[in-house]
Amino acid sequence: MDLSLRHISHRYDDVEVLHDINLDIQQGEIVCIIGPSGCGKSTLLRFIGGLERPSTGDVIQVGDAPRDSLNPLTYIFQDFALLPWRTVEGNISLALEDHALPAGEKEKIIADVVERTKLTEFRKALPKQLSGGMKQRVAIARALSVRPAVLLMDEPLSALDSQTRELLMDDLIDLWSKDPYTACYVTHNLAEAVRLGHKIVVLSRRPGKIREIVSIDIPLADRTRLSPELEKIQRQLWEMMREEALAADMELVDA
Ligand SMILES: Nc1ncnc2c1ncn2[C@@H]1O[C@H](COP(=O)(O)OP(=O)(O)OP(=O)(O)O)[C@@H](O)[C@H]1O
């Protein structure tokens, strides 16, 4: 299933937040959305996930979600959103409880996703026993368990320290390499965008408009942290955003 965003504009009262966003998200690609604070990245993601509707424009689903998808549009948030009294497998099973699954299917799905996210040994652990990185792995496993057509990730790594972020990026790349998923990934972090994005959508400051879409055709598995090519793209992105990021920062200070 692809997604097609057509002429999305939005106002909150008299403030125009997004202006005429047109974007295609194709099956199997990771699309990163970057832009200065307050430019409407999370708002756009909420429209894509159907949590809110834009003032004008549409998010069109092109083609069908996979037949076995239990939740075609699935979020992963920055704060992990785990229930503290449930174990790792209990948190994952939460996403499956509203679905009538054949006998044994839930167990099979959980075994598969904990294995893919390297959590097999931690199935019985409680969130308080886990590091931030492990908690986010649980959130990723939970999201994968419903076999989403598109993963919607809102700053999924920004609560983590830089080393853990690197490890989780490796995991996201590894998961994609084994079974390519489709994702829309909102981030402030340009290094994450160039490591993970097949396409990077640069939004301008309020109202958020698409300033540029940068495609990177280096295979994800070949993108190393210190690659000069990625560093160059990252610098170009920063040049594009620098003044607007500064202006957004000043606006927050003045508020
Ligand atoms: N429910 C709402 N009601 C009114 N204004 C809102 C609402 N949600 C967001 N906004 C405003 O819309 C603008 C865009 O917000 P949004 O959170 O989408 O931006 P963002 O680019 O994700 O920001 P950040 O990078 O700081 O997370 C901001 O000015 C915000 O204050």
Describe this structure in words.
Residues 3-230 form the ABC transporter domain. InterPro entries: AAA+_ATPase, ABC_transporter-like_ATP-bd, ABC_transporter-like_CS, ABC_transporter_ATP-bind, P-loop_NTPase. Belongs to the ABC transporter superfamily. The chain has 255 residues and is α/β, with parallel strands linked by helices. The protein folds into 2 domains: 22-65 and 158-255, P-loop containing nucleotide triphosphate hydrolases (Rossmann fold); 78-148, no CATH class. 36% of the residues lie in helices and 23% in strands. It has a 6-stranded mixed β-sheet with strand order 5-6-7-3-8-9, with helices on both faces. It is globular. Bound molecules: adenosine-5'-triphosphate (ATP). Adenosine-5'-triphosphate (ATP) binds next to helix 1. Residues 12, 17, 35, 37-43, 188 line the site of adenosine-5'-triphosphate (ATP).
Question: Tell me, what is the CATH class of the largest domain?
Answer: Alpha Beta
The fraction of residues in strands falls at 15-25%
Uncertain segments are none
Spatial arrangement of strands, main beta sheet: 5-6-7-3-8-9
Rg over alpha carbons: 18 Å
The backbone outline, from C-alpha atoms, is globular
Compressed to H and E, one letter per element, the order equals: EEEHEEHHHEHEHEEH
The CATH topology of the largest domain comes to Rossmann fold
Give the % helix: 25-40%
- Average pLDDT score: 92
What ligand species are in this complex? adenosine-5'-triphosphate
Keywords: ATP-binding, Nucleotide-binding, Transport
GO molecular function: ATP binding
InterPro entries: AAA+_ATPase, ABC_transporter-like_ATP-bd, ABC_transporter-like_CS, ABC_transporter_ATP-bind, P-loop_NTPase
Pfam families: ABC_tran
